[in-house]
Amino acid sequence: MFARLQRSGGERFEARLAMAALVSRVVGVHRLLLVNFYPFLQRYLQPHQRDVTQLLAALVQARPARRAAACFRRTGPGQAV
């Protein structure tokens, strides 16, 4: 499903958003780790982007409660994880 979401550049944003919500729900429920999923959603988190709250909800759903927060921390030069 995630591979199809990555290739869905020509589809409407609403369809991609719904598919991202589905993928995030599956990831969260089954406690999967799709490392490329989080940077993929991060591309859409822009100040001008509409439906940012739905994208944030997808990110939260995809993060299982027991996973360490360090996996999702952004690091910069000179910062250790």
> How many individual domains?
1
The averaged pLDDT comes out at 77
- Helix-strand sequence: HHHH
Taking all Cα atoms into account, the compactness measure Rg is: 13 Å
What is the count of DSSP helices, taking H or I runs of 4+ residues?
4
Write a concise synopsis of the structure shown.
By secondary structure, this protein is mainly alpha-helical. The chain has one domain (2-66). It has helices at 2-7, 13-29, 37-42, 52-62.
Protein model, in words:
The protein has helices at residues 2-7, 13-29, 37-42, 52-62. It is mostly helical. The chain has one domain (2-66). The chain starts with a helix and ends in a 19-residue tail after the last helix.
List the helices and strands and how they pair.
Layout: H1 2-7, H2 13-29, H3 37-42, H4 52-62
List key phrases describing it.
81 residues, mainly alpha
